[in-house]
Amino acid sequence: MTKNLPSQSSSLDDWLCYLESVHPANIAMGLERVAKVANTIGLLDSPSKIILIAGTNGKGTTARCLESLLLAQGYSVGTYASPHLIHYNERVRINGAELDDQFHVDAFDLLEQGRGDTPLTYFEYGTLGALAIFKRHSVDYVLLEVGLGGRFDATNIVTPFASVITTIDLDHKEYLGDTRELVGYDKAGIFRTGTPAIVGDLNIPLTVTDYGHEINAVMHLSGRDFIFKEHAQSFSWQYQAHHFEFAKPSIPCQNAATALTTLAVLDLLPSEALIRDCLANLVVEGRFQQLSSKPMVYTDVAHNAESARYLAKKLANLQDQGFKVHALVAMLADKDKVAVLNEVSPVVDAWCLAGLNCFRGDKVENLAKSMDNVHTSAPIEKYQTVADALDGVLPQLDEKTVLIIFGSFLTVAAAINYWKK
Asked: pTM of the full predicted structure?
């Protein structure tokens, strides 16, 4: 049942509750409805140059890297990301900063006055609201993260200055398909004729390049047009005449290389000194984020096989330093839990399973059943919530044990909230 229509004087929380009630589905693929509303209220005629970013993983870190490098050169930048960890305001940043609630309220009120009887999902409201805020601020560049796939995602109504695909792997199989070729084809839907298309994936499906050739997108591909190599403490990146080596950043080197290539293609690459400084100071919440040093606790949003593989490498480095790894896991019901847990299991010395008591969240009993198909002999403890699990496991940690909390954005949010309290 639809809640009462909020007004411009209503709170952001009131608006968010309303937005959740006005469309029967959480996800509704397709561009017709959202494009109609965007055109009605004039959101697609903004002078901002839009970089559209798709990918199974790495969208947030690539966007944060691009944001930092553009801001360092004096450009104004609007960034749209989802989901948020703690507060909705995290989804929209202007020049790296979140905005007061009223900016979001004003944007949603504008949409509600202009949409007529066209239904919009929560994500579509958020996307159009972000575009309204960016237009209001007249930013130089907009970094727009695709929510799901690419071809039929609400963000794909824009005309991008450049399109970026970070990585391609299996996730949201019910919407995007169960092969990398199908997923890649869907993500390649953000390409445009005559427009730069940068692909950072290390094993690019032919469906991506075939579609790019078909529409005459200007493709710049990892392994062909740009390369990067990881070393013990550094990584090197090369694109045409650009060839640099930097200290390893806190984000995956693959995403840093994709961001650098995007700016090089657009003739927006800053000086080597500026790049070095930006990479050294780059911090992305929820991506192997350290919550505590005594005991040593990290949290990570890894929730699919690819992101779990990257997390396992980080944990293996800690094991090599003599640490034992305890893993606290809580996941959403629609994720491939067995695939994720099997990627991490070789580096886990003890498991702590928890439930997520929220929409789409899975119960600890179901997570425990998934462990029956995971290759592990490590001991397992079970708790109903992340907070309960932390109460139980933290007293067990010593100076040679690391706790990693992962499995979902909601898991990370629960961990961060626990620490704040």
From this structure: 0.89
